[in-house]
Specification:
single chain, rod-shaped, 2 domains, 5-stranded antiparallel beta sheet, two-stranded antiparallel sheet, alpha+beta, 7 strands
């Protein structure tokens, strides 16, 4: 066929192209349902394998990791609280011995300072705290902060043996002290709820590096 301009639209090369492409298109159109079905089954099997095998295994690993993390955190918290209460007990011993003596001075085997108040008179040890804080009452145990942003663990007791005698015993509480509470177990930090950024006021890692994992693989000798 020829257009009026004389340009051959259906020449030999174009017909050859049609004869080659047409059978290919016919074969593809006939095989398309089969290929689609096989592809769909393959994808379905892959999705099923993922949902039945891979996903549950991944979830189990995640749950185990979370459980171990929570368990270790609880253990570190328990150790930290136990050591902190032991510091309170030591300070109580200092306070009771100092209440009996009624004077300033160190107690053998125990580290700490104290302020003895007998009636209106106070007898403080040389240190950063010159007197019993006005807000403190007998029975207080906790961490206190001075105006110089120094921290101390302190207890306030009233003597049962000496009426009218109160003792405020304390010892420094810094990064090294915090690290001793969780020595070899983990890390600890002291945060203040009023701080929006929640930057640690005390950090055990500043005194002692974070402990290395205890479960290490040993190379087998060959």
């Amino acid at each position: 066929m020829m257009w009026a301009a004389g340009y051959a639209v259906l020449d030999g090369d174009f017909l050859t192209f049609l004869w080659i492409v047409s059978p290919v298109l016919l074969i593809v159109s006939l095989l398309h349902p089969v290929v689609s079905r096989v592809w769909t089954v393959r994808n379905s099997l892959l999705v099923n394998y993922f949902l039945v095998g891979v996903l549950p295994a991944a979830l189990i690993v995640i749950l185990v990791a979370i459980s171990v993390s929570v368990l270790i955190g609880a253990m570190v918290s328990y150790v930290c609280q136990s050591e902190l209460h032991r510091s309170f007990d030591d300070l109580e011993k200092i306070g009771r011995q100092r209440a009996l003596s009624g004077t300033s001075g160190s107690v053998e085997g125990l580290a700490g300072q104290a302020i003895v108040r007998i009636g209106p008179q106070s007898i403080p040890d040389p240190g950063p705290i010159a007197g019993i804080p006005s807000w403190s009452v007998p029975g207080f145990k906790g961490v206190v902060r001075t105006n110089a942003s120094s921290y101390f663990v302190a207890v306030h007791i009233a003597s049962d043996a000496a009426v009218g005698t109160e003792v405020f015993a304390y010892r420094p509480f810094d990064d090294a002290s915090l690290a001793q509470l969780v020595s070899g177990f983990g890390i600890a930090a002291l945060l203040r709820e009023a701080d929006v950024e929640l930057e640690p006021l005390l950090d055990s890692t500043k005194a002692v590096p974070m402990p290395k994992p205890r479960l290490t693989r040993r190379a087998s000798a060959r």
